[in-house]
Structures are given as structure tokens and as C-alpha cells.
Amino acid sequence: MKQIIELTEENVSSEGCYCLRSKPQSPGYLGKNEWLQNTFDKGLKYVKLLENGKQAGFIEYVPIEHSSRVIYGENYLVIHCLWVGIAGKGYATALIQHCIEDAKQQNKDGVVVLTNAETSWTPSKDIFIKNHFVEIDKAPYGFELLVHTFQKGVLPHFPRNWEERLCYEDITIIRTQQCPYLDIATQNMIEAANKLGILPEIIDLKSREQLLEYAPTPYGVYGVIFKNKLISYHRLTVHSSIKRLKEQLI
Question: How far apart are CA 194 and CA 204, in angstroms?
Fold first, then answer.
């Protein structure tokens, strides 16, 4: 049996988020739940899909005006995350269609999503193409912007000043609480930097305005910069972090 549950301020503590649910007391999980509670009043929707009472997937989306992705536009919903743990049953499409129908009910112009074939930290492009999304923009590091639009008008887009955002000589971690794995990502990078005798600086983005101005990639919620180069925009192991930092030290 398939069941869809929408998280709210009232049930988020009992239902919890899908990711990192095996470690409910970890800083990342607690930070994510706090972020959810602080974002529900901005139109955030976090929808879980259950199969026979067990979590099988989820989708998270929010009005573009409050999105954690670096996308400019108005009157669209932005899908932050889509994850399905049971393949072959149409669950991903069911969650996408849930979002599309919600957008129609809210009189939005459409839905957009960020994809990147080079990483698993963004949703897969293929499932959105299957659901009649089309690519409308690209950004460095393999990022693509896809849209499912209901009417003609001004489409969302990426900024163009990505190189200007890398103006940090020292190791700088730019992050938010949107993803529960970002605390682990931060700790791994700090450990790697410390092994190389370097102390990183952490910048916690507190608003969408800051995110639009400072985030080094469209992913928005995490980025590591060293010697004016992007080191990573997602979680790395300590070993991989050391390797990438050493490449900039040579």
C-alpha cells in the first residue's frame, strides 16, 4: 500500500525528515528539522511516500522566492530534493506529479528543478524529462535548470557571475542547514584542513538574499573555496578533501 504524508510544524518532530533518519540525534538531522520548522511558513512542502508503512521516498519543494537554490525568477515552485528508495514502482513520478498539481492549485507558472549528471546530490535529469520538463539554462560544474511550465512568460534563470563568487584565498566553507548531510560535509573538510595545518573559515548563510549573492554554485547550500577555486559543492570524505586541498597547495 502506498501512502503520502506531508510534514507540518505539528508532525515534523514525530515524522522527521527522510535523510539521515538513522541518526535522529545527530547535529545535521536536528539542524534539518529546525530548518524545516522555520521554513514551513514560507510555503515549504516536504512530502514523504510510504510503502506498507515504511519510508520509500520523499520530495521537498518551495516557492522560488524562498528557495535554497541559486535561481532567479518569480511565481514558480523549486524542487530542492527528490529521492526514492524503491525503484520501478513509479514513486518518483508520483511525487513529481504531486508537486506539479500543487503548483497548479497555487496558481504558479510552473515548477523548476536543478540537475547535475556529475553528482548524485541533485535529482536525476531523466525522470524529469519523462515528466515533461525541458532544459532552459546551464551553469558551470555541470548544473542544468529544467522547467515544467503551464504558460508562456519569463522563465527562471541562473546568475552569470560565478567566477566573482570565488574570491576567497583561504579555505572558506559556505553553508546552510537545508541538507542534514552538510554538518558531516563541514566536519570532514575541517578535519582535512587541520591535517594540512590550515584553519577554515565558515560562513553560515542566514537568508535567501545572502545565498543569491555568495553561494558559489546553483546548488546554493554548500560550497568550499580555496585559493579562488571551488573545491567542492557536496560532501566529501576526509581523504578526498585532503586530496583536493593539496591540489591547490602545489
Answer: 20
Domain match, 34 and 143 both: yes
What is the per-residue DSSP string for 139-159?
EGGGEEEEEEESS-SPPPB--
In this predicted model, what pLDDT tens digit does every residue of 36-57 receive, in sequence order?
Answer: 988 999 999 999 999 998 889 9
The separation between CA 82 and the C-alpha centre of its own chain, rounded to angstroms, equals 9
108 and 69 in a single domain? The answer is yes
Q: CA geometry: angle at 205 spanning 136 and 83, to 5°?
A: 50
**Within this chain, do residues 73 and 180 fall inside the same structural domain, yes or no?**
no
Burial class (CB in 10 A: 0-12, 13-18, 19+), 51: middle
pLDDT one-digit tens code per residue, 78-99: 999 999 988 889 999 999 999 9
Kindly give, in sequence order, each residue whose CB lies less than 8 Å from that of residue 9, ignoring residues fewer than 6 positions away. 37, 40
User: What is the pTM (predicted TM-score) of this model?
Assistant: 0.94
